[in-house]
Write a structure and sequence with these properties.
The protein is α+β, with helices and mostly antiparallel strands and about 425 residues long. Helix content is about 40%, strand content about 10%. The chain has helices at about 60, 65-80, 110-120, 125-140, 200-205, 215-230, 240-245, 260-270, 285-305, 310-315, 320-355, 360-370, 390-395, 415-425, and strands spanning about 20, 25-35, 35-45, 50-55, 90-95, 100-105, 110, 145, 155-160, 165-170, 175.
């Protein structure tokens, strides 16, 4: 029992933990608490199945409207059979007279909690949630049930193996049963039911002929908030919000979320029209347009390059970044070419001077050596390299030590590599 802690229970609902209700539902723990009641996790002792038990507080149980809303939730959820609407298995009263509903136990979080954590959702994620809500409304409206209180708090995102965010609509407490007007005791003249931010203009003005189009307005407002991070109409007070909804058109969602695809923005704009005649006529019609918008969002996502491969994506579509990159590469290549050329010129000039300078003194000794022996007729020097032709021609003629003695001249032989070698050999002898 929860009373083992020694703390005094704050109300009668705290006494339920650890007790058994209706002879078979063992209350395990408290899941959540609201102004009118609380929800507990329980176990069906006979079959071992875990369920959720929703209780009304004593004060609310004595309120006829609250009791009617509680019964309405069970009736509406049972009539609108859809996998996207929370299932209700049973109802009854506890030993203390508290009304309760036996519901399927959901694991996950509601959309309100997710928006508090992430603020905004990606277009595809938001559309996937709205599509499932519309599937639930298609079944509910077909059964003559108008929810009238759609909001992020009543859109539950279940964790499943096959679907990371499987939507369940909860809380049909103020729903309207169109096919059973005699049972609709909650609709009273001048009564405004619902949550202001997501309420349609006709519901804000308490029109008596509320139909399914009011739920479609709410879906549009929820979609707007999922994408923009804020409801379409905001004001400091509840009444001011209602006045804004009735007198001002909703802004374009792209004014706050520019990445929203055009088709999706048009769907939201139509759902939020103040004149219900200009809205979607049915959940099926809005669902078809929303699924088309989902396909468009996926196509855009496949065309958008990922951050780690932005250049490759730009090259595929021939965009400006690809042309800019080519221009940058061309400039870098040109600058690199100029730098290499300048380096080679700077390195090449002194090396050429070093190679040519020794050739000047090398030519004169070669001429003197061939004429140093008086017994040998002078031979013409070997043909110098082409590079030094002009330089050697400008040198003064070589001097001989015994120019006065006549020397028998022999016809000159052609200069060969052997003749040059012989001349070098003779130059080593004493005169």
């Amino acid at each position: 029992m929860s009373l083992d802690s020694g703390k005094k229970p704050t109300n009668e609902l705290d006494l339920l933990v650890g007790s058994t209700v209706a002879g078979k539902y063992h209350i395990d723990r408290l899941i959540g608490r609201g102004g009118m009641g609380a929800v507990f996790q329980a176990t069906n002792a006979s079959i071992g199945k875990r369920v959720a038990l929703k209780f009304l507080r004593v004060q609310s149980a004595h309120d006829s409207d609250a009791a009617s809303r509680f019964q309405r939730e069970a009736q509406a959820a049972s009539l609108a059979e859809s996998p996207h609407i929370v299932q209700i298995f049973d109802s009854g009263r506890s030993e203390h007279g508290l009304p309760f509903l036996v519901m399927e136990l959901l694991t996950g979080e509601d959309l309100r909690e997710r928006l508090r954590r992430e603020l905004r959702l990606e277009p595809e994620a938001a559309v996937r949630i709205a599509v499932q809500v519309l599937k639930a409304l298609k079944q509910a409206h077909g059964a003559g049930i108008v929810h009238r209180d759609l909001k992020p708090d009543n859109v539950f995102l279940c964790r499943r193996d096959d679907e990371p965010a499987f939507v369940k609509i909860v809380d049909f407490g103020i729903s309207k049963l169109q096919q059973r007007p005699g049972v609709d005791t909650l609709t009273q003249q001048g009564a405004v039911l619902g949550t202001a931010f997501y309420m349609s203009p006709e519901q804000a003005q308490s029109f008596p002929d509320i139909d399914g189009r009011t739920d479609l307005f709410s879906v549009g407002a929820i979609l707007f908030e999922m994408l923009a991070g804020t409801p379409p109409h905001r004001a400091p007070t509840y009444e001011a919000v209602l006045i804004a909804i009735c007198t001002k058109d909703a802004p374009d969602v792209r004014s706050q979320a520019p990445d929203v695809p055009d088709k999706l923005a048009r769907v939201i704009a139509r759902a939020l029209r103040r004149d219900r005649q200009e809205r979607y006529a049915s959940a099926s019609e809005m669902l078809a347009d929303l699924e088309a918008a989902l396909r468009e969002s996926r196509e855009l996502a496949t065309k958008t390059p990922v951050a780690g491969n932005a250049w490759e994506g730009a090259a595929r579509v021939g965009s400006k970044p690809e042309r800019f990159r080519a221009a940058v590469f061309a400039v870098v290549a040109a600058l690199g070419g100029f730098a290499v050329a300048a380096y080679l010129v700077a390195r090449g000039a002194p090396r050429k001077t070093e190679l040519e300078a020794p050739a000047l003194p090398a030519a004169a000794p070669a001429t003197r050596l061939t004429t140093s022996n008086p017994n040998v007729a002078p031979r013409p020097p070997a043909a110098p390299p082409p590079v030094a032709d002009e330089t050697i021609a400008k040198l003064p003629p070589p001097k001989t030590r015994e120019a006065a003695k006549p020397v028998a001249k022999k016809p000159p032989r052609p200069a060969t590599s052997a003749g040059v070698a012989g001349g070098l050999g003779l130059s080593t002898r004493e005169p």
